[in-house]
Specification:
Layout (H helix, E strand, L loop, with lengths): L1 H4 L6 E4 L5 E2 L8 E2 L3 H8 L1 H8 L4 E4 L18 H11 L5 E4 L5 H4 L4 H11 L10 H13 L5 H16 L4
Parallel strand pairs: 1-4, 4-5
Antiparallel strand pairs: 2-3
Helix pairs in contact: 4-6, 6-7
Length: about 170
C-alpha cells in the first residue's frame, strides 16, 4: 500500500510461491512437491489476501508442481495454474507478468517464441525478458496469424494493461 500511495505499482511474486521449491529458476528446473490442497492451505494464502485487497499485479514463477497440476508445465506456461487457479478459482483479474523468460528454467527447455505463446495461452499478460525478443515477438504474431492465439485473447491482456495505465496517478 505504501508503494502504491507514491505511484509505484506493487507486484506480488513469485506465484504460486518459491518457499518450498527445490532448485533455482535462474539456473534450471524448479519444482514444488506439494499437493494443491497443501498449496491452498499455506503458500497461496498471502496471494489470496492480496487479491482480496485489490492487488493489481502478480509475477508468476517458472515453478513446476507435479503433485498439484496435471499439465507438467512450469506455472508461467500453465493454463491450469494461470487461468484455472489464479484467475478463475482465486478471482484475480489484474496483470500477470512472467518472471524473466531468459532464466534457465524456460530458456533451456523452450524456444523464446514457443514460451511466449504458451505463456499468453496460459493467461499471462506481459512477458518479461525473453531470451530472444525478436523470436518471442514473431512467435506471438505467428500464433495470432495461424489461430493458436486469438485477437480476443490479446485484447483481454490489452484491456488489463490499459486499465492499469489509466489508474496511474497523473
Amino acid at each position: 500500500k505504501g508503494l502504491e500511495e507514491t505511484g509505484v505499482e506493487a507486484v506480488y511474486k513469485h506465484f504460486p510461491g518459491h518457499g518450498a521449491a527445490s532448485g533455482a529458476s535462474h539456473e534450471g528446473y524448479v519444482q514444488i512437491e506439494k499437493t494443491m490442497d497443501e498449496l491452498r492451505s499455506w503458500d497461496l494464502v498471502p496471494f489470496q489476501k492480496g487479491i482480496d485487497d485489490g492487488l493489481g499485479w502478480i509475477m508468476i514463477g517458472h515453478i513446476s508442481m507435479p503433485y498439484a497440476s496435471s499439465d507438467g508445465l512450469p506455472a508461467s506456461l500453465s493454463p491450469e495454474i494461470v487461468t484455472g487457479l489464479l484467475r478463475e478459482e482465486m478471482g484475480f483479474d489484474g496483470i500477470v507478468i512472467t518472471d524473466a523468460m531468459n532464466m534457465g528454467a524456460i530458456a533451456e527447455n523452450y524456444g523464446s517464441g514457443d514460451a511466449a505463446v504458451l505463456a499468453i495461452q496460459a493467461g499471462v499478460d506481459l512477458i518479461l525478458e525473453p531470451a530472444d525478443l525478436d523470436s518471442a515477438y514473431q512467435g506471438i504474431l505467428d500464433a495470432v496469424a495461424d489461430g493458436r492465439l486469438t485477437q480476443e485473447r490479446i485484447d483481454e491482456s490489452l484491456r488489463r494493461i490499459l486499465r492499469a495505465k489509466l489508474e496511474l496517478p497523473q
